[in-house]
Amino acid sequence: MLARVKLLLASSNANKLREYRAMAEGRAIELDLLPRFRELPPFPEDAPTFAENAAGKALHYSGRSEEIVFADDSGLVVPALGGAPGVHSARYAGANATDAARIAKLLGEMRGMKGDARRARFICVIAAARTGKMLAVVSDSAEGFIADEPRGREGFGYDPIFYFPARSKTFAESHEAEKNDASHRGKAFRKLLADLSR
Prior knowledge:
The chain has one domain (5-196): Maf protein (Alpha-Beta Complex). 28% of the residues lie in helices and 26% in strands. The chain has helices spanning 14-24, 50-62, 99-109, 176-182, 184-196, and strands spanning 5-9, 29-33, 68-77, 119-130, 133-146, 162-164, 169-170. Strands 2-1-3-4-5-6-7 form a 7-stranded mixed sheet. Strand 4 and strand 5 (133-146) form a beta hairpin. The termini are close together.
């Protein structure tokens, strides 16, 4: 990427956009949400893997702009729950559930579990496409544990209960830069930028 590049996020999630902008700070990148995203025909994120959902979404929406469109599919995987919430992380407690409701459901299902049974992994796959042509698909993860109760006020989603042992705190207790350095999304996004710069 020799000149300033514009990347459009195929999402209406302002929290995700804020995180990506923080991760892109100091780089020759302009980030924004795909215009009128909520008005566009939706992509059914019903594939069984994060990669299929991210790639399908990027290709689906890339025909709506001449710019590079990128999409991610990310979620929390708890082996002791058979991989749940997994690709259903955002809809785990119902289509319109709040973060608090999803967290409450997960903690309820893990009640009584101790030690390694509380191991968890955040996974993020990011795909980028332009006018129907796939440019890159990258992924990364962050390993941790599910805390017994929510802690911290930063971040969003499952961050208050994702305990990161290397920092001895949850993602929601971490400063933005600290979280972005260690998070699944931060690591995957850095891989995407490296791929696009080649």
